[in-house]
Amino acid sequence: MKVLICHDGSDRAQTAMEKAIAILKPVNPEVVVLTVTEPPIDATSHDEEAYEEWEQARNADLKQACSWVAGQGLNPTCILATGDPRVMILNAIKKKSPDLVVVARRGGGIIPGMHLGSVSAYLVRHADCPILVMH
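Predicted structure:
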């Protein structure tokens, strides 16, 4: 079994990952952890600097998440992608062909207070594989 876990550095994403691994660990899944960063909207040097800091933070979050998965006795593949999270996750699904995708209901994106969980809702509607949305 192959599972793609979407991790944006938020507490919700971490909890979703931990719960999914607890459920799936007995089947020794192949784990892919994906973090997506969105490029800056504007090309000003301030936006570029803020983006670089944010990307470094997401990369550190990804490394920490993958280290946690490895600590559970699994050997994760870790991917840091840049672009629209919805598009990049669908691309990863096409390339990695997971049996299951795990995503938190709402994460810590640009608008963390969004009520609908736009990425998870989009994935449920557009992905060709099962999506487990963790609350």
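Summary: DSSP finds four helices and five strands in the chain.
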